[in-house]
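User: I'm putting together a small comparison set for a docking exercise, and I want a reference complex before I start. The sequence is below, and the ligand is magnesium ion. Could you produce the 3D structure with the ligand included, as structure tokens?
Assistant: Of course. I'll restate your input first, then give the structure tokens for the complex.
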Amino acid sequence: MMDLTRVNAYMERVSRSEHETFKPVGSKLKVGLDLGTAYIVLVVLDEENNPIACEKRAANVLKDGVVVDYSGSLRIVRELKAKLEERLGVELTNCAIAMPAGTESSVRTHQYVAEGAGFEVTNVLDEPSAANSIYQIDDGVVVDIGGGTTGLAILKGGKVVQIEDEPTGGTHVTLVLAGNYHIPFDEAEKIKQDYSRHREILPVVKAVLEKMASIVKRYVDPNEVDTIYLCGGTCCLTGIEGIFEKETGIHTVKPADPFLVTPAGIAMNCII
Ligand SMILES: Nc1ncnc2c1ncn2[C@@H]1O[C@H](COP(=O)(O)OP(=O)(O)OP(=O)(O)O)[C@@H](O)[C@H]1O
Ligand SMILES: [Mg+2]
């Protein structure tokens, strides 16, 4: 079982580290770079995995988990790194990166972006396994629903036995909202991220979320997996866990703030 209290407290501190710089224990820092379809995030932890600082930027430089705008990615990672270094007063050297399952062929592109920004890449992970560094579950399935991809890792006896990735995510949800309300994408995106409007939009986006749940259902056997653990920005949607539970018949949990789980998990795996 996941210790939800521990995860919520940890993720709250990661979120706070966006605006507040914490004093690290020791002198070595770990960095996680998450090049996402919707956001590029850099998380800094200390040697003991305490959250120290974090910067993120909404970006449109990847599609389906693959870098489609190399120079744009590079520029953003450089800027975020510089911001963090300014906040911390030290240079950041090592980082870990992660890939959605099935995009291993583009590992090198991700690596070149990190290296071009001045990092040495000391570890490369898959995204849902990175998320499980935070959750630390032994049995169950971790599902990371981001902007463009839905990744899952099935765990048995503490080991990842299967990883999968499908090209659907929050961008799809926003498109459905934009279409139904006859409004531009950016406006739909704002409405979607407004927690006070989640109850109103849920019926409109329910079918897309059911589709995502059905993807997960395709890969997991309810006789073998007893819990789905959600993370990724799209899981901020209020009520998503209920839809997953109904569609899959599997108990579904999510932390209070599922947004930065994967980037923080990537950082935990940075070798220093
Ligand atoms: N409060 C919120 N309510 C609903 N959706 C949200 C909220 N905050 C962020 N999102 C959505 O989460 C998505 C981004 O999540 P995340 O940062 O995990 O994706 P990513 O890592 O960039 O993408 P991917 O993993 O697919 O490459 C976006 O579609 C965004 O609209
Ligand atoms: Mg992601």
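Residues 198-219 form the longest helix (22 residues). The longest strand covers residues 39-46.
User: Thanks, that's exactly what I needed.
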